[in-house]
Amino acid sequence: MRAPTWKGRPLADDARARSGPVFRLIYRSRNLIPAAERKFQLGEIFSVARSKNKQAGVTGALLITEDRFAQALEGPEPAVRQLYARICQDGRHGQVELLETRDDQERVFGRGAMAKVAEDGEPDIPLLANVDKGGISPAQPRPTTAEQDTVLDFMRQSLQLPRQPVARGQ
Question: Which string of DSSP letters, residue by residue, matches 63-89?
Fold first, then answer.
């Protein structure tokens, strides 16, 4: 059986090893997960997404505040758009807004990333799924690249803006 491809490149191999043109989509949404269920639900989302996204060749970053999400998704355009369509239908997200879509020369997030954005200016906390601890738990911080900082800053700023579409680089 032949592995699925997009633009002549395999989808199922490890996304970290691939370079070259990539489609990026950034959205923001309202976090509708009740506070009492948040740790467990986010851990479940992260575990499932990591496995499925790897198979689809999708990488990215998810920024989380108490009441908002902002996420960058990178990969083959059909896979990214399909994932975004599922997110738009997910009851844990409200007021989903598309902020940016673009083709880029290479991935900014070479592997899946997730961070809790500190609302008070403290450093972001990388998170890992940890089913044994009932959800998510902090991971060791990793340095970011200038390109990652640019995208993450855009995502952070989008969480501070009033509800309206933000256009960038389209």
Answer: EE-SSEEEEEEEE-HHHHHHHHHHHHH
> Which pLDDT value is given to residue 143?
65
Q: 9 falls in which pLDDT band (50, 70, 90)?
A: very low
Backbone phi, psi, residue 13, to 5°: -80, 175
Structure-token pair, residue 14: 């490890």
- Nearest of 69, 94, 87, 81 to residue 155 by alpha carbon: 69
Q: Rounded to whole angstroms, what are the CA distances from 151 to 29, 90, 100, 105, 139?
A: 17, 24, 11, 14, 21
Residues 133-154: pLDDT tens digits?
Answer: 544 445 545 567 788 888 888 8
**How far is residue 71's CA from residue 58's CA, in Å, rounded to a whole number?**
12
Query: What is the residue extent of each domain of the chain?
Result: 20-160
Please name which of 67, 85, 84 lies closest in space to residue 31, comparing C-alpha atoms.
67
Domain at 20-160: CATH code: 3.30.70.100
pLDDT band at 168 (very low <50, low <70, confident <90, very high): very low
